[in-house]
Amino acid sequence: MLEVQEGQNAEVWTEHEIAVRDHLEQGQPLSEETLEWLLSRFWRETPYKDNGFIIEGFPRSPEQVRFMAESNYLVDLVVMMTVEFESVIERLMPNKLIHWKAREAKKKENKRRLAEWKKAKRVNCTIFFFLAQLLML
Question: What are the tens digits of pLDDT across the range 94-116?
């Protein structure tokens, strides 16, 4: 057991829990001991053993596949989905971020329209000034 200080709260974490945290935060690979600690409850304990469960993104490497086979962690079904990056972003993006993107797009469009209007105004003023000078001649 290790003590982890975070602010004023002190928690006692096992080495496996720290390894899982490091994996999630920094992408550190998990050791076979940590994988065994993590997976054993899902394969052998109720309710997971009786009802089943889903593991997303695992195994990720040939070593993890070998570990699963050697540990007799055999899966019933593998589902592999291929989706467009934009679809994933749309599904995961919170509504507020979607609204923010819409507002930003509207601001950009308004800036474009204003620039066009100013350009047209300059052209019209130049033409008007030119015509006024012609009439004075």
Answer: 777 878 888 999 999 999 998 88
Alpha helices in 10-136 (DSSP H): 15-26, 32-44, 48-51, 62-70, 85-92, 95-136
Before 59, cis peptide (omega within 30)? Answer: yes
Distances from the Cα of 84 to the Cα of 87, 88, 92, angstroms: 5, 7, 13
Strands 9-13 and 2-6: antiparallel
Beta-carbon contacts of residue 67 (< 8 Å; ≥ 6 apart): 32, 35, 59, 73
Residue 18 and residue 6 in contact, taking contact as beta carbons nearer than 8 Å: no
Note if the pTM is more than 0.85: no
**Whole-number Å distance between alpha carbons of 86 and 80:** 18
